[in-house]
Design brief:
Layout lengths: L2 H20 L8 H7 L8 E5 L1 H9 L1 H7 L2 E4 L5 H11 L7 E5 L2 H4 L8 H17 L3 E5 L16 H18 L3 E2 L2 H4 L19 H19 L1
Parallel strand pairs: 1-2, 1-3, 3-4, 4-5
Helix pairs in contact: 3-4, 5-7, 7-8
Length: about 220
């Protein structure tokens, strides 16, 4: 290959990687929406912080968010370190009464590189600490059951999901904050997501979200009332 062409291709790849790296946590993803919300003086809503499972929720069940005036801050593919970096602007600055945190499955899938289960839990604990320091009630959710990753077939997540959920429950107990268990009612006999409630082994379908909604609403009704 011509050296000039090779150099040009390398430069383009490096530039593309640099642009992507400049907003690794996607800080600008919700900036316009956040700016609009912060102009409102009365913030009594709930923010849902998460990854594609949270993002897909508002796509499949928009009425759940609109009728309850919930704020969705899910970004597909994200891991807990990315969420932790954007937690201030996407949660704290919106001054909600509570934040529903559903995260960790993409960490297990190593979307942003290898990470221990303990370190995933520490990132979630940091979100809890930030919430409480700003008088926001954190609601910690279990990771949904999964026994395979379509995009990372070499990883079997079953035991990691169970281990992480145990740590999440411990964090909730330690800080005296609510824990929402999606895992128990949604797991099948292969320790995966029940097929009738998911469009793949990780992501709920519309029927799956219909199962999740009353589970989380039971906790939110208690908090909001």
């Amino acid at each position: 290959m011509n050296k000039t062409i090779t150099f040009t291709l390398c430069a383009l790849l490096l530039n593309a990687a640099s642009v992507k790296a400049q907003d690794w946590p996607a800080m600008g993803f919700f900036k316009a929406k956040n700016d609009s919300i912060m102009q409102i003086t009365d913030h009594t809503s709930v923010v849902f912080m998460g990854n594609s499972i949270t993002q897909g929720w508002i796509s499949m069940r928009p009425e759940f968010f609109s009728k309850n005036q919930f704020i969705n801050r899910g970004i597909g593919g994200q891991t807990t370190p990315q969420m932790l970096l954007r937690f201030r602007q996407d949660v704290i600055d919106l001054n909600p009464k509570a934040v529903v945190i559903l995260a960790g499955i993409n960490d297990i899938a190593e979307n942003t590189g290898p990470i221990s289960i303990a370190d995933i839990a520490k990132n979630l604990e940091s979100m809890v600490q930030l919430s409480l320091a700003n008088e926001i009630i954190p609601v910690l959710c279990s990771v949904l059951p999964s026994n395979s990753f379509p995009w990372r077939p070499r990883i079997t997540p079953t035991e990691s999901v169970i281990e992480l959920n145990g740590l999440i429950q411990n964090i909730a107990s330690h800080y005296g904050v609510p824990y929402v268990d999606y895992y128990t009612p949604m797991v099948d006999d292969q320790q995966g997501l029940k097929s009738e409630w998911g469009y793949d082994p990780v992501h709920p379908n519309e029927e799956g979200y219909k199962v999740m909604e009353p589970i989380v609403m039971k906790t939110l009704h208690q908090l909001l009332n």
